[in-house]
Amino acid sequence: MSELTPFVPSPRLFSLENKNVLITGATRGIGRACAIALAQAGASVCIVSRSPDPPLPPGDNHTHVVCDLSDSDAVKSLFQNALDKMGGNIHILVNCAGIQRRAPSVDFSEQDWDDVINTNLKSVWILCQAAGRHMVPLRRGHIINFASLLTFQGGLTVPAYASAKGAVGQLTKALSNEWSAHNVQVNAIAPGYIETDMNSRLLADPVRFRQISERIPAGRWGKPEDFAGPIVFLASEANKEEE
């Protein structure tokens, strides 16, 4: 084996012991499944919730901070509040929170637009910037954003969501280009159609459900637990460039 290729046992590559995670959107759906997977890999996980008493995933290594992600002023203090909660160290940021508003584009309200953009895009930018200010000087860290299939496709009756997720994809690329030189890894996961509360209207519409299902190569909608492997990989030392 080449001296330039040191052997590292694979289980250790995926261990998140002694790592602190801040994750949004973890009270349900994909985010909750990700929070459980990260904790099972050994991480201490701080969940963001609008409720002061959120339904935490099982286990002892979960805590939470309160924040309404649609309130940009509140989001600006969120990362520091989480740092204080986690002993001054956050190794991994996961931006998974998102909301949806559906209406024909000619009728789409400005309030719905602002709600979606603030939650799905502006909060991501604010948290990424705060994480970068913490991680770049330390030359370590992982940021994982949740984009979407609609990062690449426009969708129907979801102009704000498609716009926000398209921008999340570009933001992820921009930050990755800038911060990879500082050993901070910035990636995005882009789910397709997943069986979550957000898609309940589509799941309940037999015509749209059939139309969408026919376009899925796997022949089934995804499930939140499908993201356990990808999130642990992207948060772990397996996803790391050597210094």
From TrEMBL:
Q: Which PROSITE patterns match?
A: ADH_SHORT
InterPro entries, A to Z: KR_dom (IPR057326), NAD(P)-bd_dom_sf (IPR036291), Sc_DH/Rdtase_CS (IPR020904), SDR_fam (IPR002347)
What family is this? Answer: Belongs to the short-chain dehydrogenases/reductases (SDR) family.
Swiss-Prot/TrEMBL keywords: NADP, Oxidoreductase
**UniProt keyword NADP present:** yes
Q: Which GO terms describe its molecular function?
A: oxidoreductase activity, acting on the CH-OH group of donors, NAD or NADP as acceptor
Protein's recorded name: Ketoreductase domain-containing protein
> What sequence ranges are listed for the domain Ketoreductase?
19-182
Please name the source species. Clathrus columnatus
